[in-house]
Amino acid sequence: MSEHPSFMPPNGNNNGHSSEAERALELENRLPLTGWQQEVNKGLEYGLEAADSIIDRTIPTFSRGELPHYAGINTFMKAPYLEDVRQVGNYDVAIVGIPHDSGTTYRPGTRFGPQGIRRISALYTPYNFEMGVDLREQITMCDVGDVFTIPGNNEKSFDQISKGVAHIFNSGAFPILLGGDHSIGFPTVRGICRHLGDKKVGIIHFDRHVDTQETDLDERMHTCPWFHATNMKNAPAKNLVQLGIGGWQVPRQGVKVCRERATNILTVTDITEMGLDAAADYAIERATDGTDCVWISFDIDCIDAGFVPGTGWPEPGGLLPREALGLLGKIIRKVPVCGIEVVEVSPPYDVSDMTSLMATRVICDSMAHLVKSGQLPRTRKPAYIHPEAQPELIAWT
Ligand SMILES: [Mn+2]
Asked: Which family does it belong to (predicted)?
């Protein structure tokens, strides 16, 4: 017997208490296999029955669906590729790549982020043990491919991104964006705001960097998205929560804007000292105060640089992966999330796909928390989605 007070053996006598592992074993038992059976049937129909020597008759001749993990065409988690984006509203979740890195001011390469994330996402099964979620059984997902960005032109790319995000958002499908550098944060939120009417969105921003200056190197680079997003009346600065900020790469002109607009910042030390529950409560309270929905912008560099070498501005001293994932989950479970972007994955600087894998984990965990909190699948289009209109701007004094 262990003397550790919290130790509960998964299958031992635990006096009525249960460990996470024990609950996980029970949760799995409640999940259906309908989606898996449909995938097998489709595989056998489209991919032909296997050669006679294959004993497992669920295996087709041509790989269709999840298996083998190294085979097939890499959409995100091998979700169906939706060529006709007019049909996107038929799915619970739409994955879209934003291959844009013209906003980078140091390492480029995030134009390959969507490809890198899709490739390593093939490693994952749709099932998570601890949460007892099987995405294949519980939601429908499509991959709409990438927005057509214009290399070397941020503003034209921003216009494309806003239009694409607005289309997905308005369809009722839950948008999940694969970045792309963080300059895309402004056009994505602008796309959301075009369909908010007089409703408001809070932004929860995981990052080591504030990203709040007006321009950088004379343009709206990846250091600038929240200055421009919080210029829109639908995205108030008082509802911008910035988690994990700190270190030697936080430009002072951005800090000045955070102070003037009274954004809500927690450093890594704040988060670890107050604890994940209190940090999540702080983020939830600030982001939801007077708003109707919350946009999650997850810069992969909020995690310590040792875990995510493939990124634009790596900064040591960030969150541990389990802290970042834990905080993200605690937040998603309690706020009405209207979409998620994961940015700053730069595969050319990555090692063994570890940064792309972290991004995949962030996305899959997010979907599972949305399922566990009843936000997915959606039974109806959220009430905060309105007909298209240009967002009004705030006149800052
Ligand atoms: Mn960053």
From this structure: Belongs to the arginase family. Agmatinase subfamily.
- Domain covering 76-372: architecture: 3-Layer(aba) Sandwich (3.40)
C-alpha 301 – ligand 1 centre gap (Å): 5
- pTM, two decimal places: 0.95
Using only the alpha carbons of the chain, give its radius of gyration: 21
CA of 344 to the centre of ligand 1 (A): 7
In this prediction, residues 3-32 reach a mean pLDDT of 75
- What is the pLDDT at residue 397? 73
| pLDDT of 14 higher than 60 | no
Residue 113 structure tokens: 């982020």
Ligand 1 mean position to 290 CA, how many Å? 27
Confidence grade of residue 114 (pLDDT, cut at 50, 70, 90):
very high
* Burial (0-12, 13-18, 19+ Cβ within 10 Å), 342: buried
The tens digit of pLDDT for each residue in 54-89 reads: 999 999 999 999 999 999 999 999 999 999 999 999
Render pLDDT for 121-163 as a digit per residue (tens, 0 to 9): 999 999 999 999 999 999 999 999 999 999 999 999 999 999 9
362 near 308, Cβ under 8 Å?
no
193 Cα: distance to centroid of ligand 1 (angstroms): 23
Nearby residues for ligand 1 (ion, Cβ within 5 Å): 207, 209, 299, 301
The pLDDT, as a whole number, for residue 2 is 44
Of 242, 203, 149, which Cα lies nearest the Cα of 341? 203
Distance 154 CA to ligand 1 centre (A): 18
Helix (H) or strand (E) holding 95, with range, is strand 93-98
Distance from the alpha carbon of residue 296 to the mean position of ligand 1, in angstroms: 14
Tell me the DSSP string of 228-286.
Answer: HHTTBTTS-GGGEEEEEE-SS---HHHHHHHHHHT-EEEEHHHHHHH-HHHHHHHHHHH
Domain boundaries, the chain: 76-372
Query: How far does residue 32's CA lie from ligand 1's centre (Å)?
Result: 40
Residue 299 alpha carbon to ligand 1 centre in Å: 5
Q: Give percent above pLDDT 70 in the chain.
A: 96
